[in-house]
Amino acid sequence: MQWFSLFILCALVCTVLCDKPTKKPSSKFKTTRKPLQKKPDSKTVAVKPNIDVYKYLTKFGYNPCANSTKSKPTDESGPLCSTNLASMVEAFQIAYGLNVTKKLDAATEKLMRTPRCSLPDYPPAFTDRGKLWPKNRTLTWKLENSRSPFDKSKIRKYIQQAFNDWAIHSGLTFREASENAKADFTLTFANDEHGDGFPHDGPGGTLAHAFPPWDPRTRGTSHYDLAEDWSDTYDGVGINFRLVASHEIGHNLGLGHNTLESKALMNPYYQLFEPTDMLPKPVSKVLLRFINHPHM
Ligand SMILES: [Zn+2]
Ligand SMILES: [Zn+2]
């Protein structure tokens, strides 16, 4: 009887202990898929394993000496432009309203590991009002090339929805171009380097980029990283395509990044919005520049 009791006791202990999931050697940088019932405010965590902070900050516009001829040392006077990582981190923290520690603290690193738009934060986009889109005709868009991450008809539906988000606020109207017609806006999925100096970088990291209306060579184009885990759900699984498309179309219309307002659609970092709340109020302030514009 004693042995039987001992067996029952062991079985109970094992039920409590053995049913617990084995704790895996988890990495905070590991990509995980969220369960379907995840709340909409959660973020997908497709992140890069390592971040070179200097390169990262240079890429997004926080290195005042980048691309400067003054950064090259001369024999006579030494470098005319100098910067250091602490001041670059400080500029980033100020831009995003983080605590200014000048160090890669947890909050700063967390933000840097959030997927984002490929376009830099500085210099701010230049708005050439004379080259914005005309209001007196319907503007057209087209999904270019045959590659898309999921059902192409759904992608096209979400593109139209993303344009409609802006139509409400900008006074512009948009429709899909017919098959052989030239479109004002073109959207493309691609991998890696694709010819414009903004190479896609695989899952996580940067998601997409788009170009403003004042450069005739790139006007109206936007490029999406085919390697992302694109989705059309609002449960935190994958990267919601429509939300990213809405952000990129904002660039196509002439808007730059809004770093200080974390809930703004033009904030560079990916975040989930409810479909009914695509353009939260902070963005409306930015849109004021479109209102009463004589050429729109
Ligand atoms: Zn952007
Ligand atoms: Zn591109």
From TrEMBL:
<keyword id="KW-0378">Hydrolase</keyword>
<dbReference type="GO" id="GO:0006508">
    <property type="term" value="P:proteolysis"/>
</dbReference>
<dbReference type="GO" id="GO:0008270">
    <property type="term" value="F:zinc ion binding"/>
</dbReference>
<feature type="active site">
    <location>
        <position position="248"/>
    </location>
</feature>
<dbReference type="Pfam" id="PF00413">
    <property type="entry name" value="Peptidase_M10"/>
</dbReference>
<keyword id="KW-0645">Protease</keyword>
<feature type="domain" description="Peptidase metallopeptidase">
    <location>
        <begin position="129"/>
        <end position="285"/>
    </location>
</feature>
<keyword id="KW-0482">Metalloprotease</keyword>
<comment type="similarity">
    <text>Belongs to the peptidase M10A family.</text>
</comment>
<dbReference type="GO" id="GO:0004222">
    <property type="term" value="F:metalloendopeptidase activity"/>
</dbReference>
<feature type="binding site">
    <location>
        <position position="228"/>
    </location>
    <ligand>
        <name>Ca(2+) 3</name>
    </ligand>
</feature>
<feature type="binding site">
    <location>
        <position position="194"/>
    </location>
    <ligand>
        <name>Zn(2+) 1</name>
    </ligand>
</feature>
<keyword id="KW-0106">Calcium</keyword>
<dbReference type="InterPro" id="IPR006026">
    <property type="entry name" value="Peptidase_Metallo"/>
</dbReference>
<feature type="binding site">
    <location>
        <position position="202"/>
    </location>
    <ligand>
        <name>Ca(2+) 3</name>
    </ligand>
</feature>
<feature type="binding site">
    <location>
        <position position="247"/>
    </location>
    <ligand>
        <name>Zn(2+) 2</name>
    </ligand>
</feature>
<feature type="binding site">
    <location>
        <position position="184"/>
    </location>
    <ligand>
        <name>Ca(2+) 2</name>
    </ligand>
</feature>
<keyword id="KW-0479">Metal-binding</keyword>
<feature type="binding site">
    <location>
        <position position="257"/>
    </location>
    <ligand>
        <name>Zn(2+) 2</name>
    </ligand>
</feature>
<feature type="signal peptide">
    <location>
        <begin position="1"/>
        <end position="18"/>
    </location>
</feature>
<dbReference type="InterPro" id="IPR036365">
    <property type="entry name" value="PGBD-like_sf"/>
</dbReference>
<dbReference type="InterPro" id="IPR024079">
    <property type="entry name" value="MetalloPept_cat_dom_sf"/>
</dbReference>
<protein>
    <recommendedName>
        <fullName>Peptidase metallopeptidase domain-containing protein</fullName>
    </recommendedName>
</protein>
<dbReference type="InterPro" id="IPR021190">
    <property type="entry name" value="Pept_M10A"/>
</dbReference>
<keyword id="KW-0862">Zinc</keyword>
<feature type="binding site">
    <location>
        <position position="225"/>
    </location>
    <ligand>
        <name>Ca(2+) 3</name>
    </ligand>
</feature>
<feature type="binding site">
    <location>
        <position position="228"/>
    </location>
    <ligand>
        <name>Ca(2+) 1</name>
    </ligand>
</feature>
<feature type="binding site">
    <location>
        <position position="266"/>
    </location>
    <ligand>
        <name>Zn(2+) 2</name>
    </ligand>
</feature>
<dbReference type="InterPro" id="IPR033739">
    <property type="entry name" value="M10A_MMP"/>
</dbReference>
<dbReference type="InterPro" id="IPR001818">
    <property type="entry name" value="Pept_M10_metallopeptidase"/>
</dbReference>
<feature type="binding site" description="in inhibited form">
    <location>
        <position position="117"/>
    </location>
    <ligand>
        <name>Zn(2+) 2</name>
    </ligand>
</feature>
<feature type="binding site">
    <location>
        <position position="251"/>
    </location>
    <ligand>
        <name>Zn(2+) 2</name>
    </ligand>
</feature>
<feature type="binding site">
    <location>
        <position position="196"/>
    </location>
    <ligand>
        <name>Zn(2+) 1</name>
    </ligand>
</feature>
<dbReference type="GO" id="GO:0031012">
    <property type="term" value="C:extracellular matrix"/>
</dbReference>
<feature type="binding site">
    <location>
        <position position="209"/>
    </location>
    <ligand>
        <name>Zn(2+) 1</name>
    </ligand>
</feature>
<feature type="binding site">
    <location>
        <position position="201"/>
    </location>
    <ligand>
        <name>Ca(2+) 3</name>
    </ligand>
</feature>
<feature type="binding site">
    <location>
        <position position="223"/>
    </location>
    <ligand>
        <name>Zn(2+) 1</name>
    </ligand>
</feature>
<keyword id="KW-0732">Signal</keyword>
